[in-house]
């Protein structure tokens, strides 16, 4: 198993894991880290400083910037956009040059935990944490943290229920009718009943 | 009249109709079907299994997946994103591999009927049907079917009125002030008064 | 200082200013005008007839169409989509061919004033004016004009407060706690207290 880089992709990173495929018009910059067995769709962009775990699916046109880390087995849907600056201005404008000279003054860290899914076209505000196996709906604009297993949708994204490991929505008894996994709350956090 | 493929596009399909143009950085996969006289903008992506009719306009960066069919004369605005999986997870994750081995367990069909328009950046949830000459507003997130001639916008998309064949919004008398076409209801469906 | 065009970009315009960089898979069409010291990200598209000022940042995948003008020092976030047709139909459809033969019957002008910022994934409806140093939130769908210094977010975008030259949100006293600039109203318009 080796890395596959499409002849019309650009891969400048030497930290792309075995079995990972990078498709046409995608661009992985020097200094980006991508784990094993990932799939990086057409036109996706991974900036220097971004870190992806193993078996991550990055669908077409996803943009991942410096400051973003993505856990193992995450699904990042087509056209998902990450961000890393809450108050962006054009950095060559005279009034803001000093701020942009120091990444500590503008760059925020965003984290997607393992197994989470971000639906097509979701926009993720900077500094947000998305919990394990969370499910963000297509077209959501995520302005706050999403809890593990939480289902969030809308603009701004709000809670719509809970999702199973397998992606199905849990029923009112916090059970998955597809794979029979059961869950329960500890405070406002959902946990699998046994594991 | 022959097919035009930009030298920096990738066209692997042998089912692209006469007069169709495929522009730079677009990718039409093997097994995708595209009708005659279509225009496929820069960076658009058409997956194996997708089917487009004749004279379809696919603006830049549109993504069309397996399971999506688009009727004649449809307009798909820049950056529109289709989807085909309601509960996406990364398919190489151990817990979901079995589901992804069988397309019948995850892939839904989406249909855009002839003459419909999808505004810029709209996100179309899987399994949705968009009726003839419907008009979906820019930035809409379409979670339910849209009726023929219906105008829908917002996140989630809701009805905002009705549109003419020509794209103009109908007035309160269900008439188009631009082209004088008249419409009427039969139940909750709009039909042209004569045709 | 000269223009940098990435070897995998396409630049057909001869009106791109000194110091401007055009990155991979971006496409600047013949007849597009781009000022000095701009940064045009991967996969961005600038159509014939679009005009950008100096020091503009166009992040990856932004699409700028004929009829759009962008002032000096503007920041256009990743995946922002402009539009220029309020009632789009596929222009090769028989019923609308006549309209599309005359740009005056479909093309609207959109303007982003100097120093303004558009957040990631924002969609800008045609005919809108975005004022100087305005700040449009990530994922916003802008359907109406945005005033100078105004902060607008949501779908449809609505006012959420006011932003400083530097991008920070003003406090209740209309002062920037980051750079101490003070502002005041004249009617419903915000102006810097001294300049």
Give me some keywords for this one.
globular; five-stranded parallel beta sheet; 22 strands; 195 residues; homotrimer; nine-stranded mixed beta sheet
What does this protein structure show overall?
The structure is a homotrimer of 195-residue chains. By secondary structure, the first copy, chain A, is an all-beta fold. Chain A has one helix spanning 97-100, and strands spanning 4-5, 10-11, 21-22, 27-28, 33-34, 39-40, 45-46, 51-52, 57-58, 63-64, 68-70, 75-76, 110-112, 117-118, 123-124, 129-130, 135-136, 141-142, 150-153, 158-162, 183-186, 189-192. Chain A has a 9-stranded mixed sheet, with no helix packed on it. A 5-stranded parallel sheet of chain A has the order 5-8-11-13-16, with no helix packed on it. Chain A has a 4-stranded parallel sheet with strand order 2-4-7-10, with no helix packed on it.
